[in-house]
């Protein structure tokens, strides 16, 4: 089992602005930062065409790095996106965080808002369209590699966000958009109804292109009305998820559509500095996985 496998994860510093301690999240605009890739040279640049873009040179560097590494070591570039605004985000802003946590978050909905497995608002859909436009620019001008795999939380708002972002015939993706639903990629589990998921059959009907793991249950097996997962408890869950991906998935360029708390936990699992994403925002992390029990990693 991946949970029992020993893999050390770390962030490879010096490549993305969001991993630098000098970069502030408060005024950072991911849409105008070339996906935060730092302007620099690479030791493999002499092997690239003279007109290669910064992203093309980085892509070549990463691919050569993986090819030259032992089978116990793999590098992945994670495109981490937070879902667009949902009804629950509107609810928390409307009632205040304290009242939200104490009362409103436990309801299925109120005042015309639906909290259970919350859907995107019109504003949330607009935010996802901005991500789509940003990807379109990145793929065509700086030549950012398109994701090879598209993982998403099983919560409705994340599937919606991923669909609006990538299901676009005008988006020049090298690899077709097929959302891979991962149970462990969800937000903090418990109490808040917005973080309870819909049934597998409902999600499959709503998102017919989505692919579910064989053991993905029909009903939500994790959510509880009387206990909420802590931030500290989320980190082992995301470590397990990363282990599963590094062991089974040879993809280097990985899209993950998730939640604010989920992304915080994932960043902690790989030793990345704290970085808060607003609704509909994204970041990039360059991650190294090293298996210490001698087993192979995918790739």
Helix-strand blueprint:
Layout lengths: L6 E5 L42 H15 L4 E10 L4 H9 L1 H6 L6 E2 L2 E2 L7 H19 L8 E4 L3 H11 L12 E3 L18 H7 L4 E2 L18 H18 L4 E6 L1 H10 L12 E10 L8
Helix pairs in contact: 4-5, 7-8
Brief summary:
The chain is an alpha/beta fold and 299 residues long. The chain has helices spanning 54-68, 87-95, 97-102, 122-140, 156-166, 200-206, 231-248, 260-269, and strands at 7-11, 73-82, 109-110, 113-114, 149-152, 179-181, 211-212, 253-258, 282-291. The two termini are 19 Å apart.
Question: What does the main sheet amount to?
Answer: 7 strands, mixed
For the residues shown, what is the average pLDDT?
96
End-to-end C-alpha gap: 19 Å
Helix content: 25-40%
| Proportion of strand residues | 5-15%
Question: Using only CA atoms, what is the Rg?
Answer: 19 Å
Query: What is the overall number of helices?
Result: 8
Apparent shape = globular
Broad structural category: alpha/beta
- List the uncertain runs: none
DSSP strand tally: 9
Question: Looking across the biggest beta sheet, what order are the strands in?
Answer: 1-9-2-8-5-6-7
The string of secondary-structure elements, in order, is: EHEHHEEHEHEHEHEHE
Task: Describe this structure as you would to a colleague.
The protein has a seven-stranded mixed β-sheet. A two-stranded antiparallel ribbon has the order 3-4. It has helices at residues 54-68, 87-95, 97-102, 122-140, 156-166, 200-206, 231-248, 260-269; strands spanning 7-11, 73-82, 109-110, 113-114, 149-152, 179-181, 211-212, 253-258, 282-291. Strand 5, helix 5 and strand 6 form a beta-alpha-beta unit. The model has no long low-confidence stretch (mean pLDDT 96). Helix 4 packs across helix 5 and helix 7 (231-248) packs across helix 8 (260-269). The radius of gyration is 19 Å and the shape is globular. It is α/β, with parallel strands linked by helices and 299 residues long. It is built from eight helices and nine strands.
